[in-house]
Design goal:
Number of domains: 1
Number of helices: 9
Shape: globular
CATH architecture: Up-down Bundle
CATH topology: Fumarate Reductase Cytochrome B subunit
Radius of gyration: 22 Å
Largest sheet: none
Bound molecules: protoporphyrin IX containing FE
CATH superfamily: Transmembrane di-heme cytochromes, Chain C
Helix content: 55-70%
Amino acid sequence: MDLWYTIVFTVFPYLCLTTFVLGHGYRYVTDRYGWNARSSEFLEKKRLFAGSVIFHAGIILTFFGHAGGLLIPQRVFDAFGIDAQGHMAIAFWSGLTVGVAAFAGVLLLGWRRLGQPRLKIVTTVNDAVTLAALTFVIGAGLFNVVFGHYNVLYSVAPWIRGIVSFTPDAALMRGVPLGYQIHVTAAWALLGFSPFSRLVHIWSAPLFYLLRPPILFRRRAGHLPPA
Ligand code: HEM
């Protein structure tokens, strides 16, 4: 039993993280021109706009919610006057809002691809697996938010901090409901798979675009006398 916990909650996460890091390096070196979101906007715009905007807003906020809520220890929240109960209430309502958005968005993206012959043709097995895996991970997370009502602050949260600080303790995952165990394990698997999918585009978010100096546009100087 202990061995199983060690394999699933220590060995497997590190295997996926290693694949994640080395996989991105390998992909960047071997497939630099394939490093993109493989946008299908030129084939269909309307449904993509709805699905993509709702999905990206939901999933990016979910990412920050996970990072802030799980990686920052409860004692820091206590210092700011947010006790465990308050923390869980914030996690529930914000998780529900952004989780529903991410889930609705990914379902819309899947429906868009399945429902249109010209999109079906360009959808690879890899694209389908990516969307199905995202649907599963987000769906399991949302299921836990709605039906789980389990306090993760003293089990899943310190376990994940242990993984990222290289002091893993699989025993912390003992007694955690199955729904949560499935969600975290599927999320690791998705992380390990992501370097080999279109998800590599996440690391090429054009953040510098927001800071670039404004471009000056000038009227054509046709009215000026020739030099
Ligand atoms: C970091 C910021 C991100 C940016 C700037 C970004 C940008 C884009 C762009 C330009 C596309 C192609 C056009 C479109 O479908 O709208 C796309 C597609 C996609 N993105 Fe992102 N993305 C980001 C984060 C993420 C994250 C965190 C995920 C999931 C973990 C994700 C998953 C996807 C998927 C699955 C598609 C394909 C949708 C489809 O065509 O069916 N993206 N993204």
